[in-house]
Amino acid sequence: ACAPLWSQACGTSVFSTGICARLDGDLRPVGTIAPTAQRCSTYMDIVIVLDGSNSIYPWYEVQNFLSNVLSKFFIGPGQIQVGVLQYGERAVHEWVLGRYRTAQEVVEAAKNISRQEGRETRTAFAIRRA
Predict the structure, then answer these.
(1) For residue 27, is it left (φ>0), alpha (ψ between -120 and 50) or beta?
(2) N or C: where does the chain have the smaller number of CB atoms within 10 Å of the terminal CB?
(3) Same structural domain, 50 and 72
């Protein structure tokens, strides 16, 4: 017999946890066969490579787009982690994986990214750096 005790959300999936036990003729548990508890595993690590050169304008559109995309991710411990690397002439990690623990924190951080600017757009360099 298996008996779920509660449900646990893992992103868009829901897992029921509890135990499975062997029962005797009087329906008394005589031993656990297998626990059904499951752990949410990390779905993915995402590093966004963001062009912050002078060729990108207006910057608030980039911030809005980034905030909109990031708000859709299930960000949290054991789930999705997000980092952002901005580039132009230089490649700079705005934040590294795991720095922010919720989607709301990531969205707020995205709204506060200032454009790097610069005369060059070094895309391949930034991708290698990420």
Answers:
(1) left
(2) N
(3) yes
Say if residue 7 is in the same domain as residue 52: no
Q: 25 is in which domain, residue-wise? A: 2-33
**82 and 115 share one domain:** yes
Residues 19 and 56 both lie in one domain: no
Same domain, 76 and 15: no
Q: Which token pair is 108?
A: 């707020």
For 86-98, how does the pLDDT look when each residue is reduced to its tens digit (9 = 90+)?
999 999 999 999 8
Name the pairing type of β-strands 45-51 and 81-87: parallel
128 — pLDDT class (breaks 50, 70, 90) = very high
For residue 13, the model assigns a pLDDT of: 63
CA distance 80 to 29: 39
3-state secondary structure of 103: helix
Residue 27: band (very low, low, confident or very high) from pLDDT cuts 50, 70, 90? confident
What is the tally of structural domains in the chain? 2
Contacts 24+ apart (CB under 8 A), 68-71: 70/103, 70/106, 70/107, 70/110, 71/103, 71/107
